[in-house]
Amino acid sequence: MSYLVLARKWRPQTFHDLIGQEHVTLTLKNAIESGRVAHAFLFTGARGVGKTSSARILAKTLNCEKGPTTEPCNECPVCREITEGNSVDVFEIDGASNNGVDEIRELRDNVKYLPAHSRYKIFIIDEVHMLSNSAFNALLKTLEEPPPHIKFIFATTEPHKVPITILSRCQRFDFKRIPLAKMIARLRFILDQEKVSMSDTALTMVARKGDGSMRDSLSALDQVLAFCGEEVDDPAVISLLGVVDRTLLLSAINAILARDTAPLMNIVKTVDDSGYNIRQFCRELIDLMRTQLLIKTVGSTTDLLDLSDKELEESTALAEKSDLQTIQRCISILLKTDAEMAHSSFTRLLLEMAMIKMATLAPVIPVHELIERLKALESSPRQPSVAAEPASPGYKPAARKAPETHITPAAPPEAPPQTRDWQGFVAFVKTRKPMLATKLEKGSPIKVSEGTLHIGYPKDTLEFSMLQEPDYQKQLGDLSESFFGHPVSIKILHLSGSNGDTPLSIAEKKNADASKRESAVKDAADSHPLVKAALEVFGGEVVAYR
Ligand SMILES: [Zn+2]
Fold it and tell me: What is the pTM of this model?
Protein backbone atom coordinates (compact mmCIF):
# COMPACT_ATOMS: atom_id res chain seq x y z
CA MET A 1 0.00 0.00 0.00
CA SER A 2 1.34 3.36 -0.96
CA TYR A 3 2.12 5.89 1.75
CA LEU A 4 -0.57 8.52 2.18
CA VAL A 5 0.92 11.84 3.20
CA LEU A 6 -0.21 13.01 6.62
CA ALA A 7 -1.86 16.16 5.29
CA ARG A 8 -4.25 14.04 3.21
CA LYS A 9 -4.63 11.24 5.71
CA TRP A 10 -5.48 13.67 8.50
CA ARG A 11 -7.45 16.21 6.53
CA PRO A 12 -10.20 17.41 8.88
CA GLN A 13 -13.60 15.89 8.07
CA THR A 14 -15.64 17.85 10.61
CA PHE A 15 -15.62 21.44 11.82
CA HIS A 16 -14.53 20.03 15.17
CA ASP A 17 -11.30 18.73 13.65
CA LEU A 18 -10.58 22.03 11.97
CA ILE A 19 -8.31 23.85 14.39
CA GLY A 20 -7.55 27.52 14.78
CA GLN A 21 -10.55 28.77 12.77
CA GLU A 22 -13.19 28.71 15.48
CA HIS A 23 -14.45 32.17 14.44
CA VAL A 24 -15.29 30.74 11.00
CA THR A 25 -16.80 27.44 12.04
CA LEU A 26 -18.99 29.02 14.73
CA THR A 27 -20.53 31.48 12.24
CA LEU A 28 -21.08 28.76 9.66
CA LYS A 29 -22.73 26.48 12.21
CA ASN A 30 -25.02 29.30 13.35
CA ALA A 31 -25.97 30.03 9.75
CA ILE A 32 -26.81 26.37 9.11
CA GLU A 33 -28.80 26.08 12.33
CA SER A 34 -30.83 29.20 11.58
CA GLY A 35 -31.31 28.24 7.94
CA ARG A 36 -29.70 31.46 6.70
CA VAL A 37 -27.02 30.02 4.50
CA ALA A 38 -25.59 32.44 1.94
CA HIS A 39 -25.42 31.31 -1.66
CA ALA A 40 -21.78 32.36 -2.11
CA PHE A 41 -18.86 32.19 0.31
CA LEU A 42 -15.37 33.53 0.02
CA PHE A 43 -12.74 31.86 2.19
CA THR A 44 -9.52 33.88 2.38
CA GLY A 45 -6.27 33.26 4.21
CA ALA A 46 -2.75 31.92 3.89
CA ARG A 47 -2.05 28.54 2.37
CA GLY A 48 -2.63 25.43 4.44
CA VAL A 49 -4.89 26.97 7.08
CA GLY A 50 -8.00 24.96 6.20
CA LYS A 51 -9.88 26.86 3.49
CA THR A 52 -10.43 23.94 1.11
CA SER A 53 -11.06 21.53 3.97
CA SER A 54 -13.69 23.92 5.31
CA ALA A 55 -15.28 24.16 1.87
CA ARG A 56 -15.63 20.38 1.69
CA ILE A 57 -16.95 20.13 5.23
CA LEU A 58 -19.46 22.88 4.48
CA ALA A 59 -20.54 21.04 1.30
CA LYS A 60 -21.09 17.91 3.36
CA THR A 61 -23.07 19.65 6.10
CA LEU A 62 -25.37 21.10 3.43
CA ASN A 63 -25.82 17.90 1.44
CA CYS A 64 -25.53 15.22 4.15
CA GLU A 65 -28.50 12.84 4.11
CA LYS A 66 -28.97 13.60 7.80
CA GLY A 67 -28.73 17.33 7.23
CA PRO A 68 -28.51 20.14 6.71
CA THR A 69 -26.51 19.73 9.88
CA THR A 70 -23.78 21.55 11.79
CA GLU A 71 -21.48 18.53 11.48
CA PRO A 72 -21.54 16.02 8.60
CA CYS A 73 -22.14 12.38 9.48
CA ASN A 74 -19.29 11.34 7.15
CA GLU A 75 -21.02 7.94 6.77
CA CYS A 76 -23.88 8.47 4.34
CA PRO A 77 -23.17 7.94 0.62
CA VAL A 78 -23.32 11.68 -0.05
CA CYS A 79 -20.73 12.49 2.64
CA ARG A 80 -18.50 9.63 1.51
CA GLU A 81 -18.63 10.72 -2.14
CA ILE A 82 -17.63 14.26 -1.20
CA THR A 83 -14.78 12.96 0.97
CA GLU A 84 -13.58 10.78 -1.90
CA GLY A 85 -13.98 13.64 -4.37
CA ASN A 86 -16.38 11.91 -6.74
CA SER A 87 -19.70 13.51 -5.87
CA VAL A 88 -21.77 14.33 -8.96
CA ASP A 89 -23.22 17.41 -7.28
CA VAL A 90 -20.08 18.91 -5.78
CA PHE A 91 -17.64 20.33 -8.31
CA GLU A 92 -14.12 21.28 -7.38
CA ILE A 93 -12.50 23.65 -9.83
CA ASP A 94 -8.91 24.75 -9.57
CA GLY A 95 -8.88 28.40 -10.58
CA ALA A 96 -5.16 28.19 -11.29
CA SER A 97 -5.59 25.60 -14.04
CA ASN A 98 -9.10 26.44 -15.24
CA ASN A 99 -8.75 30.10 -15.84
CA GLY A 100 -10.35 29.92 -19.26
CA VAL A 101 -13.76 31.29 -19.93
CA ASP A 102 -14.88 27.94 -21.44
CA GLU A 103 -14.84 26.14 -18.09
CA ILE A 104 -16.92 28.86 -16.48
CA ARG A 105 -19.38 28.81 -19.43
CA GLU A 106 -19.70 25.08 -18.92
CA LEU A 107 -20.29 25.75 -15.23
CA ARG A 108 -22.95 28.29 -16.14
CA ASP A 109 -24.77 25.81 -18.34
CA ASN A 110 -24.53 23.16 -15.62
CA VAL A 111 -26.05 25.55 -13.05
CA LYS A 112 -29.41 25.36 -14.83
CA TYR A 113 -29.96 21.71 -13.96
CA LEU A 114 -31.11 20.50 -10.57
CA PRO A 115 -28.71 18.45 -8.46
CA ALA A 116 -28.66 14.71 -9.24
CA HIS A 117 -29.38 13.35 -5.81
CA SER A 118 -28.42 16.01 -3.27
CA ARG A 119 -29.96 19.13 -1.81
CA TYR A 120 -27.56 21.52 -3.56
CA LYS A 121 -25.20 21.78 -6.48
CA ILE A 122 -22.05 23.13 -4.92
CA PHE A 123 -19.17 24.70 -6.83
CA ILE A 124 -15.91 24.95 -4.95
CA ILE A 125 -13.44 27.19 -6.83
CA ASP A 126 -9.96 27.13 -5.35
CA GLU A 127 -7.53 29.99 -6.05
CA VAL A 128 -10.44 31.94 -7.49
CA HIS A 129 -8.28 35.05 -7.96
CA MET A 130 -6.51 33.23 -10.81
CA LEU A 131 -9.59 33.27 -13.04
CA SER A 132 -9.34 35.43 -16.16
CA ASN A 133 -11.43 38.59 -16.47
CA SER A 134 -13.80 37.03 -18.99
CA ALA A 135 -14.23 34.04 -16.67
CA PHE A 136 -15.10 36.40 -13.84
CA ASN A 137 -17.68 38.13 -16.06
CA ALA A 138 -19.25 34.83 -16.99
CA LEU A 139 -19.35 33.85 -13.30
CA LEU A 140 -20.87 37.15 -12.31
CA LYS A 141 -24.01 36.49 -14.43
CA THR A 142 -24.76 33.42 -12.30
CA LEU A 143 -23.86 35.12 -9.02
CA GLU A 144 -26.24 37.98 -9.72
CA GLU A 145 -29.26 35.72 -9.96
CA PRO A 146 -28.36 32.39 -8.41
CA PRO A 147 -30.89 29.54 -8.61
CA PRO A 148 -31.89 28.40 -5.09
CA HIS A 149 -30.24 24.98 -5.49
CA ILE A 150 -26.78 26.48 -6.16
CA LYS A 151 -24.00 27.27 -3.66
CA PHE A 152 -20.59 28.73 -4.48
CA ILE A 153 -17.60 28.43 -2.22
CA PHE A 154 -14.56 30.38 -3.36
CA ALA A 155 -11.15 30.08 -1.75
CA THR A 156 -8.21 32.43 -2.26
CA THR A 157 -4.90 33.41 -0.76
CA GLU A 158 -5.13 36.80 -2.48
CA PRO A 159 -8.59 38.33 -2.00
CA HIS A 160 -7.41 41.75 -3.27
CA LYS A 161 -7.10 40.20 -6.73
CA VAL A 162 -10.76 39.17 -6.75
CA PRO A 163 -12.97 41.77 -8.54
CA ILE A 164 -15.12 43.85 -6.22
CA THR A 165 -18.25 42.80 -8.16
CA ILE A 166 -17.58 39.21 -7.07
CA LEU A 167 -16.48 40.11 -3.53
CA SER A 168 -19.64 42.10 -2.88
CA ARG A 169 -21.81 39.08 -3.64
CA CYS A 170 -20.03 36.74 -1.24
CA GLN A 171 -20.08 36.18 2.47
CA ARG A 172 -16.44 36.53 3.35
CA PHE A 173 -14.52 34.55 5.99
CA ASP A 174 -10.90 35.36 6.81
CA PHE A 175 -8.94 32.32 7.94
CA LYS A 176 -6.10 32.96 10.37
CA ARG A 177 -2.63 31.53 10.77
CA ILE A 178 -2.93 28.60 13.15
CA PRO A 179 -1.53 29.46 16.60
CA LEU A 180 1.51 27.42 17.56
CA ALA A 181 0.00 25.89 20.69
CA LYS A 182 -3.04 24.61 18.75
CA MET A 183 -0.82 23.34 15.98
CA ILE A 184 1.29 21.42 18.50
CA ALA A 185 -1.79 19.91 20.12
CA ARG A 186 -3.08 18.71 16.73
CA LEU A 187 0.33 17.31 15.71
CA ARG A 188 0.61 15.52 19.05
CA PHE A 189 -2.83 14.00 18.49
CA ILE A 190 -1.81 12.79 15.03
CA LEU A 191 1.49 11.35 16.31
CA ASP A 192 -0.32 9.50 19.07
CA GLN A 193 -2.64 7.98 16.48
CA GLU A 194 0.37 7.06 14.34
CA LYS A 195 2.10 5.65 17.45
CA VAL A 196 5.21 7.74 17.06
CA SER A 197 6.92 9.35 20.03
CA MET A 198 8.60 12.70 19.72
CA SER A 199 9.88 15.20 22.29
CA ASP A 200 8.01 18.47 22.86
CA THR A 201 11.09 20.33 21.66
CA ALA A 202 11.20 18.47 18.35
CA LEU A 203 7.45 18.75 17.90
CA THR A 204 7.62 22.50 18.51
CA MET A 205 10.31 22.82 15.84
CA VAL A 206 8.14 20.90 13.37
CA ALA A 207 5.09 23.01 14.20
CA ARG A 208 7.06 26.23 13.90
CA LYS A 209 8.38 25.16 10.51
CA GLY A 210 4.84 25.40 9.17
CA ASP A 211 4.66 29.09 10.13
CA GLY A 212 0.92 28.94 10.81
CA SER A 213 0.11 26.50 7.99
CA MET A 214 -1.10 23.09 9.06
CA ARG A 215 -0.30 21.62 5.65
CA ASP A 216 3.30 22.86 5.79
CA SER A 217 3.73 21.57 9.35
CA LEU A 218 2.40 18.17 8.33
CA SER A 219 4.79 18.14 5.35
CA ALA A 220 7.66 18.84 7.75
CA LEU A 221 6.40 16.04 9.95
CA ASP A 222 6.28 13.69 6.92
CA GLN A 223 9.88 14.63 6.19
CA VAL A 224 10.97 13.94 9.77
CA LEU A 225 9.16 10.60 9.95
CA ALA A 226 10.57 9.51 6.59
CA PHE A 227 14.08 10.27 7.82
CA CYS A 228 13.91 9.20 11.45
CA GLY A 229 11.30 6.43 11.38
CA GLU A 230 9.74 5.89 14.76
CA GLU A 231 12.87 6.92 16.67
CA VAL A 232 12.83 10.69 16.44
CA ASP A 233 15.67 12.47 18.24
CA ASP A 234 16.07 16.22 18.63
CA PRO A 235 19.45 16.72 16.91
CA ALA A 236 18.18 14.86 13.82
CA VAL A 237 15.14 17.12 13.64
CA ILE A 238 17.32 20.21 14.09
CA SER A 239 19.59 19.25 11.22
CA LEU A 240 16.81 17.92 9.00
CA LEU A 241 14.64 21.03 9.28
CA GLY A 242 17.60 23.39 9.30
CA VAL A 243 16.26 25.23 12.34
CA VAL A 244 18.35 27.01 14.94
CA ASP A 245 18.72 25.10 18.18
CA ARG A 246 16.67 27.07 20.68
CA THR A 247 19.01 26.24 23.55
CA LEU A 248 21.73 28.22 21.72
CA LEU A 249 19.45 31.23 21.47
CA LEU A 250 18.50 31.02 25.13
CA SER A 251 22.14 30.67 26.21
CA ALA A 252 23.02 33.69 24.08
CA ILE A 253 20.40 35.87 25.75
CA ASN A 254 21.38 34.60 29.20
CA ALA A 255 25.03 35.49 28.54
CA ILE A 256 24.07 38.94 27.21
CA LEU A 257 22.03 39.64 30.34
CA ALA A 258 24.86 38.34 32.52
CA ARG A 259 27.26 40.62 30.60
CA ASP A 260 29.49 37.64 29.96
CA THR A 261 31.25 37.90 26.59
CA ALA A 262 33.27 34.67 26.62
CA PRO A 263 30.37 32.19 26.19
CA LEU A 264 28.92 34.43 23.49
CA MET A 265 31.96 33.95 21.30
CA ASN A 266 31.63 30.19 21.75
CA ILE A 267 27.97 30.34 20.80
CA VAL A 268 28.81 32.19 17.59
CA LYS A 269 31.44 29.55 16.88
CA THR A 270 28.91 26.75 17.41
CA VAL A 271 26.41 28.49 15.15
CA ASP A 272 29.03 28.84 12.45
CA ASP A 273 30.47 25.34 12.88
CA SER A 274 27.02 23.74 12.75
CA GLY A 275 26.43 25.29 9.36
CA TYR A 276 23.50 27.41 10.46
CA ASN A 277 22.81 30.53 8.49
CA ILE A 278 24.26 33.24 10.73
CA ARG A 279 21.79 35.86 9.56
CA GLN A 280 18.96 33.44 10.35
CA PHE A 281 20.40 33.05 13.85
CA CYS A 282 20.45 36.83 14.20
CA ARG A 283 16.80 36.98 13.18
CA GLU A 284 15.81 34.24 15.60
CA LEU A 285 17.56 36.25 18.29
CA ILE A 286 15.53 39.32 17.31
CA ASP A 287 12.37 37.23 17.52
CA LEU A 288 13.26 36.01 20.99
CA MET A 289 14.10 39.55 22.10
CA ARG A 290 10.71 40.67 20.76
CA THR A 291 9.09 38.00 22.91
CA GLN A 292 10.88 39.50 25.92
CA LEU A 293 9.65 42.93 24.89
CA LEU A 294 6.04 41.72 24.71
CA ILE A 295 6.21 39.91 28.04
CA LYS A 296 7.67 43.04 29.63
CA THR A 297 5.06 45.36 28.18
CA VAL A 298 1.80 43.39 27.95
CA GLY A 299 2.51 40.36 30.12
CA SER A 300 2.95 36.68 29.39
CA THR A 301 -0.74 35.91 28.96
CA THR A 302 -1.13 37.98 25.81
CA ASP A 303 -2.21 36.26 22.63
CA LEU A 304 0.32 38.43 20.80
CA LEU A 305 2.77 35.70 21.75
CA ASP A 306 2.73 32.60 19.58
CA LEU A 307 4.64 30.20 21.79
CA SER A 308 4.45 26.66 23.04
CA ASP A 309 3.91 26.22 26.78
CA LYS A 310 7.56 25.34 27.31
CA GLU A 311 8.78 28.32 25.28
CA LEU A 312 6.48 30.62 27.22
CA GLU A 313 7.86 29.31 30.49
CA GLU A 314 11.47 29.81 29.34
CA SER A 315 10.81 33.26 27.97
CA THR A 316 8.99 34.40 31.09
CA ALA A 317 11.91 33.28 33.26
CA LEU A 318 14.28 35.14 30.96
CA ALA A 319 12.16 38.29 31.03
CA GLU A 320 12.39 38.38 34.81
CA LYS A 321 16.16 38.82 34.53
CA SER A 322 16.03 41.58 31.95
CA ASP A 323 14.89 45.18 31.83
CA LEU A 324 12.99 46.96 29.10
CA GLN A 325 15.75 49.41 28.17
CA THR A 326 18.32 46.67 27.69
CA ILE A 327 15.95 44.65 25.51
CA GLN A 328 15.14 47.66 23.37
CA ARG A 329 18.80 48.50 22.92
CA CYS A 330 19.63 44.89 22.06
CA ILE A 331 16.87 44.81 19.44
CA SER A 332 18.22 48.01 17.89
CA ILE A 333 21.70 46.54 17.72
CA LEU A 334 20.43 43.28 16.20
CA LEU A 335 18.25 45.01 13.61
CA LYS A 336 21.21 47.11 12.53
CA THR A 337 23.37 43.99 12.39
CA ASP A 338 20.78 42.16 10.31
CA ALA A 339 20.71 45.03 7.81
CA GLU A 340 24.51 45.10 7.66
CA MET A 341 24.64 41.36 7.07
CA ALA A 342 22.72 41.84 3.82
CA HIS A 343 25.70 43.65 2.33
CA SER A 344 28.62 41.96 4.02
CA SER A 345 30.50 38.71 3.67
CA PHE A 346 31.71 39.04 7.27
CA THR A 347 28.48 37.87 8.86
CA ARG A 348 30.23 36.00 11.67
CA LEU A 349 32.27 39.05 12.61
CA LEU A 350 29.17 41.22 12.54
CA LEU A 351 27.38 38.81 14.86
CA GLU A 352 30.39 38.68 17.20
CA MET A 353 30.54 42.46 17.35
CA ALA A 354 26.83 42.71 18.03
CA MET A 355 27.13 40.12 20.81
CA ILE A 356 29.95 42.02 22.50
CA LYS A 357 28.13 45.29 22.12
CA MET A 358 24.99 43.87 23.75
CA ALA A 359 26.92 42.26 26.60
CA THR A 360 28.84 45.43 27.41
CA LEU A 361 26.02 47.97 27.27
CA ALA A 362 26.51 50.63 29.92
CA PRO A 363 23.69 50.45 32.44
CA VAL A 364 21.03 53.07 31.92
CA ILE A 365 19.60 54.83 34.96
CA PRO A 366 16.60 57.01 34.13
CA VAL A 367 17.12 60.71 34.97
CA HIS A 368 14.10 60.81 37.27
CA GLU A 369 15.54 57.88 39.21
CA LEU A 370 18.87 59.68 39.59
CA ILE A 371 17.09 62.77 40.89
CA GLU A 372 15.14 60.65 43.37
CA ARG A 373 18.32 59.02 44.61
CA LEU A 374 20.08 62.35 45.01
CA LYS A 375 17.09 63.79 46.85
CA ALA A 376 17.01 60.80 49.16
CA LEU A 377 20.69 61.30 49.75
CA GLU A 378 20.29 64.98 50.55
CA SER A 379 17.70 64.28 53.19
CA SER A 380 19.65 61.37 54.60
CA PRO A 381 20.72 61.89 58.25
CA ARG A 382 24.02 60.19 57.51
CA GLN A 383 25.18 63.23 55.53
CA PRO A 384 24.64 66.19 57.85
CA SER A 385 27.13 68.46 56.07
CA VAL A 386 25.30 68.05 52.78
CA ALA A 387 21.86 68.41 54.33
CA ALA A 388 22.92 71.69 55.92
CA GLU A 389 23.51 73.25 52.51
CA PRO A 390 20.49 75.21 51.29
CA ALA A 391 18.87 73.79 48.17
CA SER A 392 19.54 75.83 45.08
CA PRO A 393 16.29 77.61 44.13
CA GLY A 394 16.90 77.38 40.39
CA TYR A 395 17.53 73.65 40.50
CA LYS A 396 16.10 71.84 37.47
CA PRO A 397 15.63 68.06 37.44
CA ALA A 398 17.15 67.68 34.00
CA ALA A 399 20.20 69.80 34.74
CA ARG A 400 23.34 67.75 34.62
CA LYS A 401 25.53 70.18 36.50
CA ALA A 402 26.77 68.69 39.73
CA PRO A 403 26.76 70.78 42.89
CA GLU A 404 29.96 72.86 43.16
CA THR A 405 32.59 71.39 45.38
CA HIS A 406 35.44 73.45 46.71
CA ILE A 407 38.53 71.45 47.32
CA THR A 408 41.48 73.34 48.70
CA PRO A 409 44.84 71.58 48.55
CA ALA A 410 47.13 71.76 51.55
CA ALA A 411 49.41 74.83 51.34
CA PRO A 412 52.98 73.98 50.28
CA PRO A 413 55.49 74.09 53.15
CA GLU A 414 57.40 77.37 53.58
CA ALA A 415 60.76 77.45 51.77
CA PRO A 416 63.98 78.41 53.69
CA PRO A 417 64.94 82.15 53.36
CA GLN A 418 67.97 81.70 51.07
CA THR A 419 66.01 79.57 48.64
CA ARG A 420 63.34 82.26 48.64
CA ASP A 421 66.03 84.77 47.58
CA TRP A 422 66.99 82.52 44.67
CA GLN A 423 63.37 82.00 43.62
CA GLY A 424 62.78 85.73 43.78
CA PHE A 425 65.85 86.40 41.66
CA VAL A 426 64.84 83.85 38.98
CA ALA A 427 61.33 85.31 38.90
CA PHE A 428 62.90 88.74 38.41
CA VAL A 429 65.10 87.44 35.57
CA LYS A 430 62.03 85.95 33.95
CA THR A 431 60.54 89.41 33.55
CA ARG A 432 63.68 90.65 31.80
CA LYS A 433 65.27 87.66 30.05
CA PRO A 434 62.80 84.76 29.91
CA MET A 435 65.22 82.43 28.05
CA LEU A 436 67.91 82.98 30.65
CA ALA A 437 65.41 82.40 33.44
CA THR A 438 64.53 79.03 31.94
CA LYS A 439 68.22 78.06 32.15
CA LEU A 440 68.46 79.25 35.75
CA GLU A 441 65.36 77.24 36.72
CA LYS A 442 67.28 74.08 35.96
CA GLY A 443 70.08 74.97 38.38
CA SER A 444 70.28 73.92 42.01
CA PRO A 445 70.92 76.79 44.47
CA ILE A 446 73.80 75.11 46.36
CA LYS A 447 74.80 78.10 48.42
CA VAL A 448 73.39 81.60 48.54
CA SER A 449 75.40 84.13 50.55
CA GLU A 450 75.67 87.91 50.70
CA GLY A 451 78.21 88.26 47.93
CA THR A 452 77.94 85.00 45.93
CA LEU A 453 75.36 82.60 44.47
CA HIS A 454 76.66 79.05 43.96
CA ILE A 455 74.47 77.38 41.33
CA GLY A 456 75.00 73.72 40.46
CA TYR A 457 74.32 71.97 37.15
CA PRO A 458 75.09 68.45 36.11
CA LYS A 459 78.35 68.44 34.08
CA ASP A 460 77.99 68.14 30.30
CA THR A 461 74.66 69.93 30.28
CA LEU A 462 74.12 72.81 27.88
CA GLU A 463 73.29 75.22 30.73
CA PHE A 464 76.53 74.36 32.57
CA SER A 465 78.72 75.40 29.64
CA MET A 466 76.64 78.31 28.39
CA LEU A 467 76.25 80.13 31.71
CA GLN A 468 80.05 80.23 32.14
CA GLU A 469 80.43 82.25 28.98
CA PRO A 470 81.43 85.90 29.60
CA ASP A 471 78.35 87.26 27.86
CA TYR A 472 75.95 85.38 30.17
CA GLN A 473 78.13 86.13 33.21
CA LYS A 474 77.82 89.82 32.40
CA GLN A 475 74.05 89.63 32.04
CA LEU A 476 73.75 87.74 35.34
CA GLY A 477 75.97 90.30 37.13
CA ASP A 478 73.82 93.21 35.91
CA LEU A 479 70.55 91.48 36.74
CA SER A 480 71.67 90.40 40.25
CA GLU A 481 72.82 93.90 41.04
CA SER A 482 69.45 95.30 39.94
CA PHE A 483 67.60 92.71 42.04
CA PHE A 484 69.69 92.56 45.21
CA GLY A 485 70.74 96.21 45.15
CA HIS A 486 74.47 95.38 45.28
CA PRO A 487 76.88 93.37 43.17
CA VAL A 488 76.51 89.60 43.63
CA SER A 489 78.76 87.18 41.77
CA ILE A 490 77.15 84.06 40.36
CA LYS A 491 79.30 80.92 40.34
CA ILE A 492 78.30 78.03 38.06
CA LEU A 493 79.43 74.71 39.56
CA HIS A 494 79.00 71.18 38.43
CA LEU A 495 77.12 68.68 40.56
CA SER A 496 78.85 65.42 41.46
CA GLY A 497 75.61 63.50 40.89
CA SER A 498 75.82 61.44 44.07
CA ASN A 499 75.14 64.31 46.42
CA GLY A 500 71.80 63.58 48.05
CA ASP A 501 71.82 66.92 49.89
CA THR A 502 71.70 68.98 46.69
CA PRO A 503 68.76 71.37 46.91
CA LEU A 504 66.13 70.92 44.22
CA SER A 505 66.27 73.13 41.16
CA ILE A 506 63.22 75.32 40.62
CA ALA A 507 62.13 73.08 37.73
CA GLU A 508 62.41 69.98 39.92
CA LYS A 509 60.61 71.74 42.70
CA LYS A 510 57.76 72.70 40.35
CA ASN A 511 57.30 69.07 39.38
CA ALA A 512 57.40 67.92 42.97
CA ASP A 513 54.93 70.60 43.99
CA ALA A 514 52.60 69.70 41.16
CA SER A 515 52.46 66.04 42.10
CA LYS A 516 52.12 66.94 45.77
CA ARG A 517 49.25 69.24 44.91
CA GLU A 518 47.62 66.57 42.78
CA SER A 519 47.74 63.99 45.54
CA ALA A 520 46.42 66.59 47.98
CA VAL A 521 43.49 67.25 45.63
CA LYS A 522 42.89 63.52 45.30
CA ASP A 523 42.91 63.01 49.05
CA ALA A 524 40.59 65.93 49.58
CA ALA A 525 38.26 64.76 46.79
CA ASP A 526 38.16 61.15 47.96
CA SER A 527 37.21 62.15 51.46
CA HIS A 528 34.67 64.77 50.39
CA PRO A 529 31.15 63.69 51.48
CA LEU A 530 29.55 64.57 48.14
CA VAL A 531 32.07 62.52 46.21
CA LYS A 532 31.63 59.62 48.62
CA ALA A 533 27.86 59.87 48.25
CA ALA A 534 28.02 59.98 44.46
CA LEU A 535 30.19 56.86 44.41
CA GLU A 536 27.70 55.11 46.66
CA VAL A 537 24.71 56.07 44.49
CA PHE A 538 26.20 55.35 41.09
CA GLY A 539 28.45 52.49 42.16
CA GLY A 540 31.24 53.82 39.98
CA GLU A 541 34.82 54.84 40.45
CA VAL A 542 36.73 58.10 40.10
CA VAL A 543 38.65 58.08 36.81
CA ALA A 544 39.96 61.66 36.74
CA TYR A 545 40.60 64.54 39.12
CA ARG A 546 40.37 68.00 37.66
ZN1 LIG B 1 -23.74 12.38 5.73
Answer: 0.60
